[in-house]
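Sharing a chain and its predicted structure for anyone who wants a worked example. Both blocks are below, sequence first, tokens second.
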Amino acid sequence: MSGKIPVTVISGFLGSGKTTLLNRLLSAKDVSPADSGAAGRTIVIVNELGAVGLDHLQVRHIADSVVLLESGCICCSVRGALVDTLRDLFLDALHKKIPSFSRVIIETTGIADPAPVMYTLSYEHFLSDRYVYDGCISVIDGVYGAEQLRRDPVAVQQAVLADALVISKTDLATAQGIAALQQQLSTLNPQALQHFAGDRPGLADLLRSSSLRTGVAQPSAGQGLWATGAVRQPFAHGDVKTFAMTWGTPLQRSSFIRAISRVQADTSLELLRVKGVLWFQGDDSASAIHGVHNQLYPVEALNNDIVPVPAGDQRESALVLIFRGNSGDRLAVEMADLLPGGQLRLSSSHNFVQ
């Protein structure tokens, strides 16, 4: 298993259809080795809340590739069962006790926050040397999703932290309801690509659109942070809001790290997520930026075929900040002060509350 093994999280609120989606993806006739990497084998970890696990019985066509965590919600057990499971899987493949694998998919419980999984994969030493967090696919209930987003902070967190969104049960909802839900999701997470489960997107498409390396920005494909309307006026959804900053010239890496670390450390700003693509001075490629709460994950250089080097000196960087509460004006001022020369995508009134 050369290189790090990508890990994708499938999240979503209780009853949203995560297992149904996973079943369909893994049993599809068009799934090929290319969908899951060079080795052509994907390990699926199913996290079941409670003492008796049932979901693993519903995951088809993967047999011994399914690992069930029964120690409780994955967001509460990342230091224990998940770490042990991923370590054991790697060592078993290394010693040829099981076939080698090239990707891991983790299906969380409906009440799990994906953030601790991201943290563990980045900072647990054994795992961070061998695995890499590759994004989150969140399944949103097409019938009840709007209400869940209004009333439950976990549902909001799952949508905010997603890199790709799949809306389920569209056949049971009205067209007006789905359109309103899409607007809610665009408010919460404007840069995440939205899919309809009824359109039957393939495994390769979902993994690609949720990947931090290929989904974060694809200017030529018109998606990611450079999508039409993706960097736009601030949105508000309850007390979760979003705005973006852009720079036309490369940034100094150390200045950016200091700036983002400072705003992440200020808990009164209630920063939920930072995501973007930046050009740093002296680099020949752009870098993917990804942070959750007060953690900035390792900055990763992007291949030039993902974000090509533009002609001339124009190298535009974009950073999206998602936060909770009414600290938007203060956050915007602080970012502009710490990283001068950027353009804040704010309304003329600078009013973050709609």
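Comments welcome. The longest helix spans residues 78-94.
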